[in-house]
Amino acid sequence: VLDSMTFVGEAIFRGETTFLKDSVIFGEREGKSNLDINAIIGGTSVLSFEGISRDNRTISLAVEEPSGHNVITLPDVTGTVITTGNFPDVLESLRVLGTAEMEGEVYFSGPEVRFGHPDRPGKLEVKSYITGRYPLVFSDASAEGRSGSTTFEITPPTANNIISFPDVSGTVITTSNIPTTIMLPDEDYTIQARSFVAKAGSVAMGTNAVPPKHKGSFVFTDASDSIPDFDSKRENSFNVRATGGVKFVSGHTPSGKELGVVLEPGASSWSVLSDRDSKTDLEPVDGVEVLSKLMDVPISTWQYEGDSVKHMGPMAQDFFEAFKLGEDNTRISTIDADGVALASLQGLHKLQLELEAEVEALRAKALAGEQTLRQNEARIHEQNRLLGEQEGSMKQLLSLLKLQPRE
Fold first, then answer.
1. Can you tell me the distance from the alpha carbon of 193 to that of 164, in angstroms, rounded to the nearest whole number?
2. In whole angstroms, what is the distance from residue 407 CA to residue 388 CA?
3. Among 169, 249, 364, 390, which one is least packed by beta carbons within 10 Å?
4. Pairing mode, strands 218-221 and 203-206
5. How many angstroms separate the CA atoms of 391 and 397, rounded?
6. pLDDT, tens digit, for every residue of 327-385?
7. Residue 76 CB: number of other CB atoms within 10 A?
């Protein structure tokens, strides 16, 4: 142990050497000396460099508590060490080997910025917004003459749009690679939009659906098994196979009952809501009066414009004028036509009953007259018989008078 020692000239320390004083000075302050250390520097204190001016300003080289065997290599170049305190605002050239983390605003203004090694896969992790007016171009162009690129360009936005990438693996679908068949997982699939437009020459939906045979057709097939294939009937047709029934709802009553038409399973005609509990303002009708009005409604055969199929029925204007039923005078609701027909049948039945009663009364009166006639004929016959008997008696009397002698 040496309490104080000064070495003039060259000094070499071999083995373990410990300096216990607060200050250990190597070399002259005004001169230049070399300190050659061929060993590992250990310890917990910082290395402080006062500089030449002795103004109590120092530069300290401190080492954080290491979590492993770290190695910091000084490059074989001349320059100033860059730290977080003197990192330049602008770098003309920067090459980073290994992992680099950048915080705050960073601008890359050079003509070319490369991330990663050209021959080894790397990772670029961005935890901020990517903004700019130039598209992202992914290219394999190289000095060997290979060329080809994929450009990711954003249309100038009109709002704060958000495009989310799902948590699945797959290929992004664009207008150029839309597949002819899309296989979705065996689960519910929902499309929610303010409006949805699908333009197609024909549409087929449902279980085991196939492209329609006719253009401009819509085909829906249910999940029925063991029945013939279902397809469009002709061009521009609407075709639905629903063996469980079809329902069209056009509204609801205040009590929640559905308004519309229903085609029940196996049925060939529509059913409409006619529940008493769904109706108000019920008023009975006079069937005879309805029949009388119906007699004044002209019935014609006719064809729709541009159609060759013949139909029979009244004109909507005449029907509306006679009964004031329906929404307007250009259409006839089947429920109103059925109601008029049923009321007319009731009125006709009532007239028939009245006519039958009148006929029965006339028949009874005729039978009564016939009976009186028969009674009169019997009386006449009896009177004729009595007259005959009297005539015989008179003849016998006359004969007896002729046989007596005269005095």
1. 16
2. 33
3. 169
4. parallel
5. 10
6. 999 999 999 999 999 999 999 999 999 999 999 999 999 988 888 888 888 888 888 88
7. 5
